Amino acid sequence: MSRTRLYLLLATLTTLGYAYLAYSLYFSHSHVGITICPIKNITGIPCPSCGTTRAVIAIINGHFSEAALINPLGYLAVVATAVLPVWLSYDLLLQKETLRVSYNKAENYIKGSKIFIALAACLMLTNWIWNIYKGL
Fold first, then answer.
1. What is the per-residue pLDDT across 37-89, written as a single tens digit (0 to 9) for each?
2. Under 8 Å between Cβ of 48 and 33
3. Does residue 81 contact residue 11 with C-beta atoms inside 8 Å?
4. At 31, is the pLDDT very low, low, confident or very high (cuts 50, 70, 90)?
5. 124 class by beta-carbon count within 10 Å (0-12 exposed, 13-18 middle, 19+ buried)
6. How would you class 103 by CB atoms within 10 Å of its CB: exposed for 0-12, middle for 13-18, buried for 19 or more?
7. Which residues 6+ apart lie within 8 Å of 103 measured at CB?
8. What is the Cα–Cα distance from 7 to 102, expressed in whole angstroms?
9. What pLDDT is stored for residue 32 in this prediction?
10. How many CB atoms lie within 10 A of CB 7?
11. Of the four, 59, 86, 104, 122, which is 20 to 30 A from 133 by CA?
């Protein structure tokens, strides 16, 4: 993937993530809002990432153990939305490609590691079972 395409994609996803988080924070106290998960909307069964926004909101409010129980992926989302804008800005301002180089290394590692893919699949399946068990 080209540098421009990667950075534009990451910037867009990060911006959309912040916009949805702002929307969710605004409506979290009133219990009004939309569920954007197509799997849950169609089947009624939560997907592996269902509850991530609620977990992020719990982390923001300092409820760390509650966030882990809602969906552990919330921690990954917090790290990504905190680090990516800074890293993108660093590369763009200093005309570097550290993010792209790291992305390419990670992509090559994942492609060549069947154990990593199997472990990630098992973790996502476990999280999905956890979400269904909780009745998200």
1. 788 888 888 888 888 888 998 999 999 999 999 889 899 999 999 999 999 99
2. no
3. no
4. low
5. middle
6. middle
7. 1, 6
8. 12
9. 55
10. 20
11. 59
